[in-house]
Amino acid sequence: MHGTKLTSTPAPTLSRRHFILTAATAAGGFMIGIGIAPGAADAATVPGEPWATGEGYSPNDIDAWIAIDPDDSILIRYQRSEMGQGSMTALPMIITEELQCDWAKVRIEYASANRNIREKKVYGDMFSHGSVSVRQSQKRMQQVGASARERLIAAAAARWNVPATECTAAQSVVTHKPSGQSLRYGELAADAAKVQLAAEPAIKTPAQFTFIPKAMPRVDVVHKTDGSAKFGMDAQVPGMVFAAITACPVPGGKLKSVDESVLNGAPGIIQVVKLDNAVAVVATDTYWRAKRALSRLQPVWDTGEAGKVDSEQLSKAYRAALSEPMQTARNDGNVDQALSGGTKTFEAIYETPYLSHSPMEPMNATVNLQSDRLDVWVGTQDAGEATEAAAKASGLKEEQVYIHNGFIGGGFGRRDANDEVKQAIAIAKVVQRPVKLVWTREEDTRQDKLRPHAVVAFKAATGVDGLPTAWSMRVVTSSIFNSVGVKFPPNKVEPMSVAGLADNGYNVPNMRVESLLKNTHLPVWFWRAPGINQHNFAIEGFLDEMAVANGIDPYQMRRKLLEGKPDWLKVLDTAAEKGDWGKPLPKGSGRGIAICTDCDSLCAEVAEVTVKPDGQVKVNRVTVALDTRYMVNPLTIAEQAEGSVIYNLTAALFGKLTIKDGAVVQGNFDTYRMVRLAEAPKIDVYLVPSGGPKWGGAGEPATAPIAAAVANAIFAATGKRIRSLPISDHDLAGSA
Amino acid sequence: VITIEVNGTSRQINIEPDTPLLWVLRDVVGLTGTKFGCGIAQCGACTVHIDGRPMRSCSVPIGALDGAKITTIEGLSPDNSHPVQRAWIAEDVPQCGYCQSGQIMATAAFLKEVPNPTDADIDANITNICRCGTYERLRRAIHRAADMMKA
């Protein structure tokens, strides 16, 4: 069996969807089962306004997570964010598994970050990054569901005066088998709320699951097809005014002056607000008024030395720093000795540029700041951090801050800085009214906290069998923790700086990975699959170079280097087999392969590419094999794999921010190009969960391999090796 | 004062005539299903129907729309039952969902013009950006919607 392929077939009616899970063998596919997932009518629901109602309590709470109404409908509170990754569906599914309740009667809303403060972090961390939602909450969610179930059973047993051990729970009903009595959860909830268990019940092992894994439509999909899903951008507060902002284009710079007189007579302008590093215009009635007025201002900035920096200097400085002393992340064997003893040696430098996250929803925040209460409507990946930041910026206590998290119009790591929240509060303090602050697309690109620039220098030696015997990897990039403001021990290696390199799975006896962090004035940040999204392009490209030069098939080279690692081999073999590795292709076309581990998952991808005579690259098809170890909702896992491929394919093909005079040059989608439907490859995802002690993440692990898979496919098609991104910087005309 | 019809309701709009329709819909009329993504007609998140034609509302000034009939995502169907919406649900297309109003409105107008689209037709006509990368399911949903509309 080589994987589970998830496709949907035409459904006879809207309310029944058939997901066919086919398992394929070397001989071909066969069906292992049909999971029928409910449609909109019988699925769990979420309100279009997803934030917690009121103070985040319900009279029918049985604890902070779960409220059960007399009619058996169950409210499950979701403590993380929904930015498209599907965890707002997945985490309640885990609770449902243990609670033994009816999924069709579940409704979901965000847990209140305010209640989390008031009740001593009853929800724990509230962030969504690092693909943690399932893998770091799964045990907790199981415990929440199991505790509630046992309390419901205890309440029923007490009512019947029977031992709890004689009672069972299923589909929102507790049954006492010996007497045949049963009670619905809705009839037991009030009593269950008072039950205190002597000890927490054991949670199920994956083998005991009866509900998950199950392909389920996302709970938010109906609101995302009729315009009713409320994003931060859609907050409407009585009396609110609109703000547009431009911060100093050179990060770290200050506002010197701005001539407001150009706005004299412009309709509806309330105020020009000068902040330390930015200028905002606040207007009535429409955001457009503020935006247009802002575009007429010509602020003068003090940019200092940073205003002289450009991309070429930065690249040169990074490359020059490759010979400086570095910190060692991994050092196996004796690399220097082995390098000199190899049959053949290899050297290459790989380089990847700054990128913005560019979520579809530009950054925004709406605030209503009163003397004793602050309400913030925002799409944030971290409502907990947003609460802290808002309290600090407003001077109020955290208990006085209410974060109303919306559906998030794309996060990818960008939306956990909460800088837009701080700005909106600063403006509200000045204008003393509720304010909706919206960034323009240009502001969103230029004031992003960027995917770092990185250079990686490789040296390797191969032995008589053509396999590497020694491998040195040296990285120069910048520190994400420094931008975050996290103090990281200076003698330690920042994990993101070597992600995808130090954690490679290859059996090479002598291997050393080192990194050097050179910070610039440009803030850098977590960008989907931090570090590995760019370093995997480097390591998998360089490995391809060695394979080709030594006459070894790149897939077979990886197979040999992963010997004894069945989980790695499984994703590699699945991607290769399903991606038709080795089958003939017309001239001008080629296949490339790459593999990685990320967030405790494994992923291999095969890309099939055609390079046209004019040099245009068309990625025809991508085959993904993803091992998340376990699965909650295979449908959303497959969706995340598809999305991850497109996200980093955009970066690989087109993504590059240029720095000139210290500022980001690109602003909007006309200069910062995105993959569109016509350029999107066919993507086939095979899910091959291998089990084991840890659960893997789903939101990020399929991001990294696509860049190298495409670059290696271009080599196969043209003989041209791509060692820097984006691919569009390379002239491939006539190469195929 | 400009008079437009939005989802069947007549509206008197009294605002600077160069205000793009997008901001009239969102901030004046209060319909937030139409999204702001780029402001320069690049991404298509703001796509609505103006007299039946798909237009990127961020780049259409309200002053040019006196008497126009506008349909937004909220008015595409009263109950999420338009074949394109149903196909989107059946294929579980949206991830973050922010671009999907525009994708759906673009597709609904496109399928009226081209009821039996090939993949090449779709490539040439559905040019909206989706950063979540829902393109694989989006393409399937377009074909599914076309089939549903024929049935």
Question: Mind explaining what this structure looks like?
Answer:
The complex is a heterodimer of chains A (736) and B (151). With 736 residues, chain A is of the alpha+beta class. Chain A is 26% helix and 25% strand. Chain A has 18 helices and 29 strands. In chain A, the strands form seven sheets. Chain A has a seven-stranded mixed sheet. In chain A, strands 12-13-10-20-17-18-19 form a seven-stranded mixed sheet. In chain A, strands 15-23-22-21-16 form a five-stranded mixed sheet, sandwiched between helices. In chain A, a hairpin with a 3-residue loop joins strand 12 and strand 13. Chain A starts with a strand and ends in an 18-residue tail after the last helix. The N terminus of chain A is likely disordered. In chain B, strand 1 and strand 2 form a beta hairpin. At the A-B interface, helix 6 and helix 17 of A face helix 1, helix 2, helix 3, helix 4 and helix 5 of B.
Mean model confidence by pLDDT of chain A: 93
Please report the distance between the alpha carbons of the first and last residues of chain A.
36 Å
Low-confidence stretches of chain A: 1-40
- Broad structural category of chain B: alpha+beta
Could you describe the largest sheet of chain B, including whether it forms a barrel? Answer: 5 strands, mixed
Structural class of chain A: alpha+beta
* Biggest chain contact: A-B, 72 and 68 residues
Order of strands in the sheet with the most strands of chain A? 3-2-1-29-26-25-24
The portion of residues assigned to helices of chain A is 25-40%
Q: Which percent bin holds the helix content of chain B?
A: 25-40%
SSE layout:
The complex is a heterodimer of chains A (736) and B (151).
Chain A: E1 4-8, E2 16-25, E3 28-38, E4 66-68, E5 74-78, H1 87-99, E6 106-110, H2 113-118, H3 132-135, H4 138-160, E7 167-170, E8 173-176, E9 181-184, H5 185-192, E10 241-247, E11 254-257, E12 269-274, E13 278-283, H6 287-296, E14 300-302, H7 311-320, E15 327-332, H8 335-340, E16 344-352, E17 364-369, E18 374-378, H9 383-394, E19 401-405, H10 419-431, E20 435-438, H11 441-446, E21 454-462, E22 468-477, H12 480-484, H13 495-498, E23 510-517, H14 532-549, H15 554-561, H16 566-578, E24 589-598, E25 601-611, E26 617-627, H17 634-654, E27 659-660, E28 663-664, E29 682-687, H18 705-718
Parallel strand pairs in A: 5-6, 10-20, 18-19, 22-23, 26-29
Antiparallel strand pairs in A: 1-2, 1-29, 2-3, 4-5, 7-8, 8-9, 10-13, 11-14, 12-13, 15-23, 16-21, 17-18, 17-20, 21-22, 24-25, 25-26, 27-28
Chain B: E1 2-6, E2 9-13, H1 21-29, E3 47-50, E4 53-56, E5 69-71, H2 83-90, H3 100-113, H4 119-125, H5 135-150
Parallel strand pairs in B: 1-5
Antiparallel strand pairs in B: 1-2, 3-4, 3-5
